[in-house]
Design a protein that fits this description.
Layout lengths: L17 E9 L4 E9 L3 E6 L2 E6 L3 E12 H6 L12 H13 L2 H14 L3 H10 L2 H15 L2 H11 L2 H29 L2
Antiparallel strand pairs: 1-2, 1-5, 2-3, 3-4
Helix pairs in contact: 2-5, 2-6
Length: 194
């Protein structure tokens, strides 16, 4: 999956704040790390990176308070090694990483990684954490997005994802895809039966 990349080249221009993080363990095996920004009677909202996410109490196994303060911007973005980004300006790389964060791509990939690791035998989990490095994955995505989007397009897309409609799209797209896949599987089953 490529070599480890831990050199931090840039941060987003967002204000860096220090806060204690919580780790929310979900019943489906996912682990969400961030700051709880709202606790309702039936749900919580946790800010994971730049994105708030809501979870209902019946989805939650437990919540642990982390001991050390975290730097929210650094934890959200991670590291990108510019020496591996031939021909991509620091400004554009920054926009691509912001897009990956704002669109929920990074969080979705991390959730899948956490699920895979949690469902693996305990003796293989440490090795899988090394293989499935989110910073390395983001590093590999930057040149791919560079081929297809201009800086202006990235700015427009990022602005959209920060709107209420963009936030809703991030929230409901996985649900829509899940329903579509279930419906497709059912249709294939029905067609394959004699």
């Amino acid at each position: 999956m490529g070599e480890k990349l831990f050199v931090i080249i840039f941060f987003l221009t967002a204000a860096v704040c220090s806060a204690r993080a919580e780790t929310v363990y979900l019943k489906d095996g996912r682990m969400i790390k961030g700051k709880i920004i709202n606790r309702g009677a039936y749900d919580i909202t946790i800010k994971e990176g730049a994105m708030p996410r809501k979870f209902f109490n019946d989805q939650i196994l437990r919540i642990d308070q982390d001991e050390a303060p975290v730097n929210a911007a650094e934890g959200a973005i991670g590291a990108v090694d510019s020496s591996k980004l031939t021909g991509i300006s620091a400004e554009k790389a920054n926009l691509i990483v912001e897009f990956i964060e704002t669109s929920g791509i990074r969080q979705g990939v991390q959730a899948n990684i956490d699920r895979i690791i949690a469902q693996s035998p305990a003796e293989k989990q440490a090795g899988l954490k090394t293989v499935f490095d989110i910073n390395g994955i983001v590093q590999q995505l930057v040149p791919i997005y560079d081929k297809y989007y201009s800086p202006e397009e990235l700015r427009e897309i990022i602005a959209f994802y920060k709107t209420p409609a963009g936030q809703k799209m991030i929230e409901v797209t996985p649900k829509i895809m899940g329903e579509f896949l279930r419906a497709s599987a059912d249709a294939v089953k029905q067609r394959s039966q004699p």
